[in-house]
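Q: Got a minute? One more chain.
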Amino acid sequence: MVQQHDAPPRGYRGRGATYAPHNRFAPTVSVAEDDGWWQEAAAESLATEVREEQARSALSWNTSPDLPFDRSLNPYRGCEHGCIYCYARPSHAYWDLSPGIDFETRLIARSGLVERLREELCRPGYVCRPINLAGNTDAWQPIEARLGTTRAVLELLLECRHPVTLVTKGSLILRDLDLLAALAEHRLVRVMVSLTSLDADLKRRLEPRAASPTARLRVIRSLHDAGVPVGTLVSPVIPGLTDHELERLLAAAAEAGATTASWMLLRLPREVAPLFEAWLATHAPERARKVMSLIRQCRGGETYDPRFGHRLRGQGVFAELLQRRFTTACRRLGLNTPAAEAAMRLDTTAFRPPQAQGDLFA
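A: Always. Here it is, folded:
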């Protein structure tokens, strides 16, 4: 296990987090002590570990008024993309792991997930509404290339004509273009490709193992050309660091074929705030004070505001300006038109429960 520290000791090559904050549920913690034998060390490289967890259920349910879906499915816990700002990082503490380096290097693959989903879709009284695939961590992160759980989920959803919504920043989604095109023929899928920055160097530091900006735009173009409804999610918008790119990101997505767009302000719940501040100190020290000042201006003086209606977009003058800029740019670029939004609506009437495993008379 990576030793936990109160302060960031160094960066890790190819990783987003600079240290491993304490797991808030752990009964004991370890603290690094200076023994006097100081030496300058190069950035350490950490391998990715994957362990399996037998899934006891497939769907997660929510009643959040901020979210456009009431159910989601996540094939993996933790995410090798390593986005330093990821709001899902605190959830790793529930598995006795650190939301820092552990979140992106010690992953959990949920085995038996497709079987559990099949069982849940077969239950009497199940009401079909779109499933959001990977609302917590990316379903097309690198380990999906080997494990294929996400593809198996899509195959089941196509079999039973169940609608699904997708958000990703991984180019691996193009491996499944055949399934996505088939789902689109029945109005069963819409995809949002997440864009953060067009600056490849900044992307490499913010999201070390996610697809490049060029690759994500290529994903949008490929999905559009295959007839799959696709939009972009400009997220997170980081005040003082990426907010100046808002209009350019929307223009690039529209040119690639996106027809709808949305945006979210940077969220820093629990351990994410100190992790992000440590990242700023390492990778953008000259902007750190300005970025954190603007974030607090959008969060009522705090680093985070968890209230529904505020947590995704913030409040105050700067947040309102971002919203006006977004709305103006979308209108100019022809994004989010009534026709585009209508094309994104999914069909829930064609759903047919899949055959249960072991059906004797199938």
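A: Confidence is low (pLDDT under 50) at residues 1-9, 33-42.
Q: Perfect, thanks.
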